[in-house]
């Protein structure tokens, strides 16, 4: 029953830890809720005549502050290495889709 709605069965196990809860929340949001939200946003855009975005992933990011900090440190280090190698940081950011 859980799988039909995108809920990982481990979420209902009584020994589930916080890590599993976070992963189950991400899984549910990414594979079940975000596609529905995208359809809703598309329909709202058509009806309202203005771009509408619905993002269910943004609130989940707060739960992984440590992982985000490590990722940010990696990005800063990579940009520093790119600068040392003479690679334009704007080009590097554009290559990974982070030009904004």
Can you summarize this structure?
The protein is an all-alpha fold and 100 residues long. The protein is 58% helix and 0% strand.
Describe this structure in words.
The chain has 100 residues and is an all-alpha fold. It folds into 2 domains: 1-56, no CATH class; 65-100, no CATH class. Helices cover 58% and strands 0% of the residues. The protein has 3 helices and no strands. It has helices at residues 18-48, 65-84, 89-95. The chain is flat, with a radius of gyration of 19 Å.
The total domain count is 2
| Mean pLDDT over the residues | 83
Provide the succession of SSEs. HHH
Terminal CA distance: 41 Å
Number of helices: 3
Percentage of helical residues?
55-70%
In terms of DSSP E residues, the strand content is under 5%
Q: Profile the largest sheet.
A: none
Computed structural class: mainly alpha
The backbone outline, from C-alpha atoms, is: flat
Number of strands: 0
Q: Could you list the spans in which at least 5 consecutive residues all have pLDDT below 50? A: none
Estimated radius of gyration: 19 Å
């Amino acid at each position: 029953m859980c799988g039909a709605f995108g809920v990982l069965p481990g979420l209902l196990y009584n020994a589930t830890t916080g890590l599993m809860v976070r992963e189950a929340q991400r899984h549910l949001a990414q594979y079940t809720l975000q596609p529905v939200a995208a359809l809703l946003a598309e329909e709202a855009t058509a009806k309202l005549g203005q771009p509408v975005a619905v993002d269910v992933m943004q609130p989940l990011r707060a739960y992984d502050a440590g992982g985000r900090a490590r990722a940010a440190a990696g990005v800063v280090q990579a940009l520093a290495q790119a600068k040392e190698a003479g690679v334009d940081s704007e080009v590097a950011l554009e290559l990974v889709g982070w030009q904004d």
